[in-house]
Amino acid sequence: MSPHLVAPYVKRNKNDRNDAEAICEAVSRPSIRFVPIKSATQQDLQSLHRVRSQLIRSRTALANEIRGLLGEYGIAITKELRVLRRALPLILEDQDNGLSGVFRETLAEMMERLKFLDERIKRYEQRVRQLFEQDERCQRLVQIQGVGPLIATALVAAVGNAREFRSGRELSAWLGLVPRQQSSGGRNVLLGITKRGDRYLRMLLIHGARAAVRYAERRSDPGGAWISRLKARSGPNVAAVAVANKNARVAWILLSSGEHYLPLPPHPRDRTDIGARAPRAPLGQRTRRRGALRVVMHPKPAAFPPPSKSLRGRAENPL
């Protein structure tokens, strides 16, 4: 169990006896939620992701420190890692930039540390890729738009087969991708997302969704059209969170049922071929549109059609 679910049942001061009593009281509740036990494979995947994340934070801190020290000498570099990698050798080779010999040695050592962190991060990503190719569940997850090897392995490491959740919405709520409620008196108020659960996994899902939102206009399937409409209506950030929420629900279906991802076929009205008409259902057959049956009416022409307004005006005002 999570400790924050047991804390409300502690009646007095904190000691071993009161903690044991609170745990027994929390276990007896029918709505209590338990933490699933991870397998050895999940622990291996999670350890790789944790170490990789720590290396990325160290690299980011080192890059910011290098930019800050160079700014003290009047050398400004934009906040992009690739720009910093290209600029450091040029700065060290330039003898007219006013840098002292002591600082040049320090900067060279920091550049070597930056290269070392890049190599370590790349090696961990290769190890994640190897485990990804060996797991059949990860192979099914990458069929979703906006999900890659990193997201697939992180999902499997966190939830396994995802059978501890009753629905896809529970998984998305566990990841903090659902709106936060502040409702009272029958008035429903929805705020931003809750941001609960695994922050690292939520970050990966949203970044993958940003890639799907960016290339949604190039897609011709209903999913791409839905993302384009949502992006035009609510902006790219809201669209990215909505796509991440949807990807989490689809991932729950694939993990819990063992099925493969089947994208929706394009709608007949979205076809780009010129001169082709959408197939129509035969008479009397049920369709998926508003009418249950397709019925064609042939109204009889009127024997004496009513005159037009222009004719009535001429008859009333002949002169």
Structure in words:
With 319 residues, the chain is mainly α. It folds into three domains: 1-35, no CATH class; 38-134; 137-182 and 189-262, no CATH class. The chain is built from twelve helices and two strands, in the order H-H-H-H-H-H-H-H-E-E-H-H-H-H. The chain has helices at 3-6, 16-27, 40-72, 81-93, 101-134, 136-141, 149-159, 168-174, 199-214, 222-234, 236-257, 309-316, and strands at 179-181, 190-193. It has a two-stranded antiparallel sheet with strand order 1-2. Helix 8 packs across helix 11. The protein is globular.
Question: Can you give keywords for this protein?
Answer:
single chain, 319 residues, mainly alpha, 3 domains, two-stranded antiparallel ribbon, 2 strands, disordered C terminus
Describe the structure concisely for a colleague.
The chain is 56% helix and 2% strand.
Unreliable stretches covering 5 or more consecutive residues: 290-300, 311-319
The separation of the N and C termini measures: 95 Å
Q: Care to count the β-strands? A: 2
The number of helices is 12
**Rg (C-alpha, Å):** 31 Å
Cα shape: globular
Mean pLDDT: 84
Strand content: under 5%
Q: How helix-rich are the residues, as a percent range?
A: 55-70%
Largest beta sheet: strand ordering: 1-2
Question: Which structural class do the helices and strands define?
Answer: mainly alpha
Largest sheet: 2 strands, antiparallel
Listing every helix as H and every strand as E from the N terminus to the C terminus, the arrangement reads HHHHHHHHEEHHHH
Number of domains: 3
